[in-house]
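Second attempt. The first submission of F-box/LRR-repeat protein 15-like leucin rich repeat domain-containing protein had a stray character pasted in from the spreadsheet, which I only caught after the job came back as garbage. Lesson logged: always re-copy from the clean sequence file. Corrected sequence (456 aa) follows.
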Amino acid sequence: MPQGSNKIEFCSRCRARFTIKAGATPAVDENDGGLLCPTCASSSSPSVATPKARPVKRPRRKAQKAEIESQVPSLQDLCIQKIANCIEDVEGFGDISDLSMDKICRIISRNRSLNANTLQLFLDSRHSDLSLYDCTDINALGLQNIAQFCPSLRSLKLKFCGRIDDSVMDYYTSHLSQLTSLSLIGPILITEASYIKFFEAMGERFTRFELKHSARFSLKALKALCDNCPNLTHLRLGDCGQMDDEWMEPISNLTKLKSLRLRNPERDRVSTEKVVKLIQAVGSGLEELELKGFVEIEDPVLLDAIRPSCVRLERLNISGCEEFTTEAIQTLFKDWTVNRGLSYINLENCVMLKDEALMAITAHSATTLETLNIKGLDELTKDALLTITKCENLTMLDASWCRAMDDEVMEQLVKSASRLNKVVVWGDHRLTECCPSRKGMKIVGREGDFIDLRFM
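This time the job returned cleanly.
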């Protein structure tokens, strides 16, 4: 058994599962030499040794049930849920807040009830922002009605909008004269010419653009965006099949960028050299940088670009960057005095990173870090995980598949990080149901942690 860790065993007499704390000596059955749980050990003859350590109390199912029942939804949430469930019978929302309307839209999108008919409930000429979370069942005419009934829109977000085509895009170009922000997820039918026409019409007022899962968005369309919209502050491009080295140069001309998020280019299409030049050009103003899935880029991106250029950086996502080394991460954060600290760091599946990388991060951003993702960093040891306890303002931690995570580390996190409200621990088999928690903190993925609804 690894030193300093607990161990799960089964009683040789009653077959109950029990925990042996680190350093404790379990009782032994004289008959077969098996281990005994505290209950069976206490009922045996005095000749049977009893464990020295006091057994840890199991969390009771009733306590878990009470905690769930205490989370009673508000009357407003109940009303919103009722409206969403009967959305086909609703004729109008009346005077409700934008926040409540957005909640209803999220619910009916999850229920796959958003279509051309229910869409009319969300269209109003007074709206300046509109987000639709599943446009799968909305045809081209329904999507076109957005611009017809909401001509004053400044921000538009459409998810799963695979049915939007050039005619709809051209209609937006001519009718949404105040639009400054557009987000499209999955627009597979829009052609290069339509994108170029749209960007030329948007001009300098356009500040935010997000595009994901589009194989038709080309280098010419990107150049039209960068040439016609120089005031762009937020650019997010992900899973665009044509992304390559040539895309980096036009983006480097957007010197007013505050958020740059690039995701999942095809393998061998984007080189380290081009990414370094891009970050050196725009990094001084960046507050958020994402390079998710750039599996080929190497350490110079961290050392020659991010460290000297990104002085204002607050959020960094380098998940899936498999070539980044521990030494580079350590050098990036060590004595990085020009940066005041990051609030969000995502290192998911950066499989080469070891203890020194995490220690350097927690030393640099201990007072500012709020969200940390170290999923898949199997090389981390318990000593490195304990340094996370320095992050007093941490609110969310994903430590899935970090095998060194155990009850002791969780106990220290509960004590030190008072704002921590969610911990994800899939695959951390050393965590038991006896690991400490507190009210308001959610532990996701703990092995054996479930409630049998049949007995509630």
